[in-house]
Every structure is written in structure tokens, then in C-alpha cells.
Amino acid sequence: MTSTSSASSTTAPITAAASGRWTLGDLPVNRIGFGTMRLPQTGGALVADAVPRDRDAALAVLRRAVELGVNHIDTAAFYFSRLRSANELINSALAPYADDLVITTKVGPDRDRTGAWAAHARTPEALRGQVEENLRQLGRDHLDVVNLRIVGQDSIAERFGALAELRQAGLIRHLGLSNVTPAHLAEARAIAPVVCVQNRYGIGVRPEDDAFVRECGEQGIAFVPFYAIAAAGGEGGATGAEPAEVLAVAEARGVSPAQVRLAWTLHQGPHVLAIPGTGDLGHLAANVAAGALRLSEDELKLLDGLHRSATTG
After folding, report:
1. pLDDT tens-digit profile of 81-134?
2. Which of 79, 204, 209, 277 has CB 3.0 to 4.6 Å from 35, enough for a Cys bridge?
3. Residue 111, number of CB atoms within 10 A of its CB
4. What is the spatial distance between Cα 103 and Cα 144, in angstroms, rounded to a whole number?
């Protein structure tokens, strides 16, 4: 394995432009973006008793992300803690929004005011209500990209069709899908264009989806992995010891295991985007810098072997 200089060992900060670019419909974005799920709280996300993050600290992270060239921010109305809402933080930190800033949100999941999970939105009326809530919280007259996030294997035609109607009405510019199968994608594309698929994926996470990742690229659709760093830790963040293969690459490059994981996902195709989230300025800079890390063939072979050895994720 050859060793090269660290992606973060320069005097000037590395920006998201180093990761390359992709176009979501007609919206160009840098391939390293920012996910806001972790921003409203410290510790695990999407739990009722989450400890709210310091507001000024959260706003500073968002503003610094944009300074570092991040122009793709992923959010949702159900990303909140007792005192903090990801959408409100975005609005406060970044409005009036830059012309090149793309905000992607998602609908489907729902939480009540206590933070407990409620039934998924499945009717056109419920989905429109969620779209309008995102518009209100973000202070927008339209949403750049809306992902329909689902659970289960049943048809998404009615739900996706409802969002397609909102797109025709001008409330949504582009549509995507989250937590879906190739069959879901085919069903949706028969109704309206799909610009992105956002699924759980990473080193050792769902290697059975490798072909789906490639198929998205062949269809010109962005694939946006979530939990690429946290892996099995999911909403709670990275847990457990890193595999020896990840640690070996990280040590040889002088970077963190998280940066190796992000770099590996970006190497899966030019259509693969990253949306790592954090409430820490140092981690933010490191995540952005991972977009400049180019893995060697030997390193990719080592990590690919680790990935393929997993049975599920």
C-alpha cells in the first residue's frame, strides 16, 4: 500500500470543491455536502429525550460549512430536539440563501411534538402538509429537492404521484427517493423524473446494494449514502472498533477512519454524493477535506474486500 500526503495536511483549508461536482436535475452541487440530522442535539439523533445543542454553535457549523464550499445541505422537518429544529437553524444561519445553495429535504416520516415517532404520511393531504411545513420552516417559496422516504416494500405510486403533482404546481423543483429498492425507483420513474436515491450504504454496509449504486449512475441519478461514517451505529453515531483495514489506510494516509469511509463512498462513482453531519467545527473541516482524498488501487482493493465480506448492514 502506498502512502501519500494527508488530505487535510495543507495550510489553507480544503474546500468541498475538491470532491468534484454532480448535477441534481439542473442544480450543480459539490459532491461533499452536509447532513443536518445531528445538528439539533448532542448525542444520538431522532430520540425524544435528546439534549439540545448550543444554538450559536450549531449556527456556526452551518455558516462554516458554506464557507468551506458546501452547497448541498440535507435536512428534514422531523430533525429536531426539544429546543432546536434543523430547518430553523438553516433558515437563521443561511437566509437569504445563496443562489447556488441546494437544500434537500425529505417527507414521509413524522414525529409528534414530544419527539415520539408517529405514523408515516401516506396520503396526498399528509404529504402536502409536510411539504408546506418544510417551506414554512425554511422560509422558501419552493423546495429544491424533496425525497420521499419510505418503509416497507409496498407500492409508492400514490405517494410519489402526490409529490409529482406538487412539483407540477411549483412547490418542488426536483424529486428523489430514500430507503428504496430498484423496483421502487422504476415505479417512481414511470411517474416523474428522479434526481437522487438516498439509501443506507458504506464500507461493510449493504454490499448487496452495490449493483443498485451502479444502476443509479447508469441512469444519471445521484446516489446519496446516509450513515456512511456511522455504519451500524446509525442514528447514534459511530460505535465499536474500526476494522483493521480501515485503520491501516487511515494510518498510512495520516487521516481519520471517518475520512477513509467518506473517501471510499466517493470512489464508488462520480454520481455518489456524501452528506456527513456533525456539530463540531473540527469534524466538519475533516469531513470536507475527505473529498480531496484519492485512494490508491491497493487501498481500494483492501477496503472493497472488507466491504464485500459483510453480509448485511
Report:
1. 999 999 999 999 999 999 999 999 999 999 999 999 999 999 999 999 999 999
2. 277
3. 17
4. 6
